[in-house]
Here is the input.
Amino acid sequence: MSEIIPDLVRHLGVLARIQLSEDEVSQLTGQLDAIVDNIAKVSEVATPDVPATSHPIALHNVFRDDVPGVTLTTAQALQNAPDADGDRFRVTAILGEEQ
Here is the structure.
């Protein structure tokens, strides 16, 4: 039995503030109905003894030690800057006001 009807699609369009044409309502009714049917089929198969997964292959993070390396000095970082103020880069304001 179809759970998605054109009136429901129109209502969802109003809630989402999307103006839908009748062709779009007709198309979305079929598409959303197919989605709901597929979700119902998956729900029938899902059992409590099957763990939920987001990926078919288990993933794990590979971490390395966080070891500080060689960094630039302030002078080296600023040497090619078009404009600098002391030990900082100077850039033009983008918000229309000085920070």
Notes: Residues 61 and 67 are 18 Å apart (CA to CA). Residues 22-45 form the longest helix (24 residues). DSSP finds three helices and two strands in the chain.
